[in-house]
User: Fold these one by one.
Assistant:
Number 1:
Amino acid sequence: MAMDSQTNPPPSTSQRPNPLKLNPLQCKTLALLQAFAKAGNGYEEPDGDGYFVGHFPRPHGNHMHVGDAVVMMKDATGLSNPAVFTALERKGLIRSAFPVGAVLTPEGRAYATGVDNKILHKTDHHSPHG
């Protein structure tokens, strides 16, 4: 029976979070890089083969702001870890420019980490109140 599940995987297999089995620190770091890109903290590469993100925001005590979200610094330690950038680059998800930033490849931008809503805490404290 295990043979059947391997030869005929369910159609949603490719849509499952973290198909490359990144470790938790790699997932969090990639999710942050994706969030920086979505927030417009970077630019499209001239050749159209990626999106550069870098010059990360400074922390405010135990957190930092990424677009309309707050990220706890304990979830952002991978941004200062060269081994994380090396691993993400080896898997084809980024091109490292450590320590300045990284170019998210199209695969990296589309990768489902499954941790976004666990580390990106949406806030409205900068929004006008009506």
Number 2:
Amino acid sequence: MQPIWLYHVKLEGKVEDSVVVRCSKLWRGRKAPHVNHEFEARVLKEISGSDFFSELLAFFQTGYCYKFMEGQTYRNMITDTEPWTRPPHDLGMTKGLVKVHNFRLKGESYETTDFFDRYLELIETKYPNGYICEADDIPTKEVILNELKDLIELSKKFPMEIVHCHGDPHPGNFIPKTNGDVYVIDWENTHIGYREYDLAYMCQTIHLYVNRIKEEVTYENSMAIYEEYITAYWRAWKDSSDAVPPKEFIRTVKFCGLVYHIILCAMVGSFHDIQDFDWPLGKTIRETYERYLQFKNHPELQKEIFDS
């Protein structure tokens, strides 16, 4: 059963007097296994009232409350009817991501990260040993684990920078402001990790949210999204409208796009034993792994990632 976890409360019927109450996502009384709510609380207390988050009003045992942020998320701006459109100014999301990556949590060195170790453990302890249901022919735990181990070994060839990451930077977690800035919401997956992975996550989810409405999810149209968003991110990072991202940076983000697929399989698989879960887990894992193989085996990516 999928929970309702976000509430908009109008104290006096006016937007300026509104608050949002966000409850921790619980499935049958269990928290998501990849989430660290204590770390999330530390982050929210420090970004409260910043130019990319609202004012935090209260924390409680199962969530928190903050002032309402007016506007629509980029996800809600996507039309799924003809004529199909992308959200206006959607590249502005990269500005929000840059603000996240420039944030530094007090008491953290940002010299190391347990990013890969956390997902290796998640696969070992939470990924299903067999079918989620008889109709779902999903990759085995051994397959997913070995793919991630191979990618971790390959990652040594790529210069990945350790920064503060959002962890779930999809179009539903960014709200454009009237002054051109962006609010960033839903911080439960925040962590210290690799900025190139966080950006690849954004590219991939933009592609899945937007392009699949109009066209088939293919390597070619996925890479077009990557190129566009990587360039926009780099220009925001450098605060220059004509900055050109280095080829090595582009290559690293594309590599992290492969990592994204395996980690998504791990995350989705970790919910397999929750009864009445309103989400096609097996189908999601199978399609994600098939897309991973499609991208991994594409001749252009083979040449750019594996043969160079």
Number 3:
Amino acid sequence: MDVASHQTTYLARADAPRWSPAGDRIALTDGDDIVIVDPRTKRSETHSVGISGVIATGLEWSPDGAFLSLVHRTPDQPGDSRVRTVLGIVDTGTWKFRDLGIRLWGVTASLRWVNLPPRNFDQLARVLVEACKNEPSR
């Protein structure tokens, strides 16, 4: 929205906008695709990450903008009102999804990034997986 004129400009038809850390891109979800918008040029790119059941609220940028966390529904739903989800990351250079092996209940799950050197990421992911395994089921 232009503050002076109160004019609204629509950049994309998608959900859950997330600004990149540098402020030069906006990531959104459109069904099972990720849409990246450049707010200056108003151009958008749509990227398929090869998974289905993407949950918009799980989309978050890594501190360096190289990855997006992503949550999606698993194909093995329990048949009741609970939603089983998978937590993973998407490389914004290749648009490949990497499953972190973390299974959760509910559509509000997301990954909060911390600013760690890349070499520590796999170690942190293993710690999180173990913590989730040891959490009592509800």
Number 4:
Amino acid sequence: MRHPIIVCGSCPFLGSLVFLPVRSVMGQQYQAKALLHMDDSQITVKKNVVNPASWQFSDQNSPLPLQQHPAYGLALQSFGSTATSVEFEDANKTIGTAMLLHRKFLGAFRFTTLFRGPLWQRPDTPQEVQLACLKKLKALYAPWRWNFLAVLPEEPQSSETLQAYKKAGLRRIMSGFSTAWIDLRADEDFLRASLKGKWRNQLVGAEKSAFTISIGGRKAMQYDWLLEKESTQRDNRRYQATPLGLVPAFVAASTPKSASGVLSVAAIQNRKKIAGALFLLHGNSATYHIGWAGDEARDLNAQNRVLWEGMLALKAKNIRFLDLGGFNTADLAGIARFKLGTGAAPLTLLGAFI
């Protein structure tokens, strides 16, 4: 990791981000209540132990970020972090949840990160209520006691929203980065039609090639080879990302009730793996975590087919949303162009706040 505080997903710095919360207009009664509770003491924060077996995400029509899934928090405990979950309650009713990651440095400095959350029980939760919850959470941390909190919300970049966060006492310390989600609820024909022309033509060519596709699951033997390729790829391209050990740790923390795990895709030619991809599954969503292609695969555009077949396999598992894992246009522009070829629209987040 390039940053000592934030431990996160697939991007070298902040990880894979972004879902766009729906901002529907609620009834007048709830709107009035929301404004009343902007500084209302009825909003409380309750801390809980992270437990994948009892975890639930009620909003199945909104993407679930990897960094808010309990299996991710437990997996990071293998790398020096601790995780806790919190519930935001309004008049004793849960309105949102969040997973917090904690790290301690030099025995005294304590850093807590709320990354890609909170998750709201209703996607149309008013902004006033969301900010009131974040203010309540922030009040639990005292920088003068070397106890720091950083919040990286799932909010698209907007001058109006930035101003609202500023008025709520949340100061931005870092701008957001870009990623994209693919809505896998669409049928296969629509997904294929949404591909960019060049990307789709490359897919057609790859489908005519002789190599085959193999889909794997949570068994280490099905994805270990891809971790080895990724390690070599990182050394050759000189970029950093999350520890490769996150994958087996994530698998170990996954449970059937938490709907988490991994899915791997391999392109095989003459009994040799020439390309592959690894997806982390978290609730109704998945993250494109690792992709690799050898020289033969590049000539065949095999990675186009690997990603496409992965999308279809995720759909078959009732995964509704796919996070493409962030865009690093400075160091990995080619990978960013490849991801955008799927037709997914890039989205820049609001940033990090203290």
